[in-house]
Amino acid sequence: MTKFTNPGLMKTNRRNVLRGSMLAGAAAMAGATAIARTRAPKINAINETSTKLYKAAAEQTADSTAKPADLSGYTRVKQELVAPPFAPVHEQVATGGPKIIEITMETTERLMVVDEDTGASVWALTYNGSVPGPLIICHEGDMVELTLRNPVDSMMEHNIDFHASTGALGGGGLTHVYPGEETVLRWKATKPGCFTYHCAPGGAMIPYHVTHGMNGAVMVLPRDGLKDKDGNQLRYDKIAYIGEQDYYLPVDENGDYKTYEVAGDDYSDSIEAMRTLIPTHSVFNGAVGALTGENALTAKVGETVMMIHNQANRDSRPHLIGGHGNFVWESSFTDAPLQDMETWFVRGGCAVAAMYTFEQPGVYAYVNHNLIEGVLLGATAHFVVEGTWDNALMEQVVAPRSFET
């Protein structure tokens, strides 16, 4: 299947798409400049600037004479990452000294159904096979040591930009891996809060990868745990990790969603759809209904749930219908949390934490309160809460009945 992108410049198919993203990653390899000249096609002026950013970041480290990091006093621990909406085992208050948190992620390209009712699907670009990628949790002062692997049967180059890290474009300049390669990156968590991570190979490949699901979140907890504005300790019983994903799925002349043989075949069509800035879908955890029905989140009356909401590309406005954000950290854990929020704000390219203790049983809808996106495009999740009803909080005094005029 051959398509044209940037008419007059280059002919593209899935292999040329891969080569097009290689220019940014080539600089991360020894002797890469010469390799890039022979493998990479020309790119247009719009993409050239961002591609050069990644090249410059890698070249800067290649000539570095920096001393090795002093890792004395650190304890190594392995964190087993789990699929969303769940969170890895972790401490809310750190015990002992700083740690080196070892994690492994694989850049898996997989065909995912976005909406069973319409047959919409996408060749999702993922970390560990899920949209969003797995939640990573550490404490301020810890180091995260990631082994990033790109399977040999992948069609594309990948990397990772951690918004929580410092330097080399969030690690994006140091982690370009081609199919069949792996790399190891270690970075220090110096800022407490929730942060986005995402793939950013360079040029148009940055939004292409992000809007195909290649993003996730890191939570960096204060070493002494979370606190309210008065310094009182705050604890949660469980985490609900929600990744809001905007998709721009190409349609044919009849309005039906197109299908593609392998990852990357949709590149030119997707770029055209993305330029509209109008998503065909805005969903939680990869697909319409991923967190409703049998997949609904669960809790009990009296349980406190930490809701971590990641949106790597667009602004969002989460709202828990029937509940509130008792404590909301829209910026970082350094700031005192907002309290008793009805709706909170997630800036595009951010992750936000909100804590709520459920007081009534029933089904709660967690939505993007741009209700067009929440209802029509799919950005809805459900919490099914067990417990005893409290009429002091809400009571149906009279059931619906007819009345005389």
What is the makeup of the main sheet?
6 strands, mixed
- What is the general shape? flat
Strand percent estimate: 25-35%
Q: In what order do the strands lie side by side in the largest sheet?
A: 15-14-17-21-19-20
pLDDT averaged over residues: 88
* First and last CA, distance: 67 Å
Number of domains: 3
Give a structural overview.
Helix 1 runs antiparallel to helix 2 and helix 1 crosses helix 3. This protein folds into 3 domains: 60 residues; 149 residues, Sandwich (Immunoglobulin-like), CATH 2.60.40.420; 147 residues, Immunoglobulin-like. A 6-stranded mixed sheet has the order 15-14-17-21-19-20. Strands 3, 4, 5, 7 and 9 form a 5-stranded mixed sheet that branches. Strands 6-11-10-8 form a 4-stranded mixed sheet, with no helix packed on it. The radius of gyration is 23 Å and the shape is flat. The chain is built from 6 helices and 23 strands.
Outline the secondary-structure elements:
Elements: E1 3-5, E2 10-12, H1 14-26, H2 32-39, H3 45-62, E3 75-78, E4 99-115, E5 120-127, E6 136-139, E7 143-150, E8 161-162, E9 181-188, E10 193-198, H4 205-210, E11 215-221, E12 226-227, E13 233-234, E14 238-247, H5 267-274, E15 281-284, E16 297-300, E17 304-311, E18 318-321, E19 325-329, E20 338-341, E21 350-357, E22 362-368, H6 371-376, E23 380-386
Parallel strand pairs: 3-4, 4-7, 6-11, 14-17, 16-23
Antiparallel strand pairs: 1-2, 4-5, 7-9, 8-10, 10-11, 12-13, 14-15, 17-21, 18-22, 19-20, 19-21, 22-23
Helix pairs in contact: 1-2, 1-3
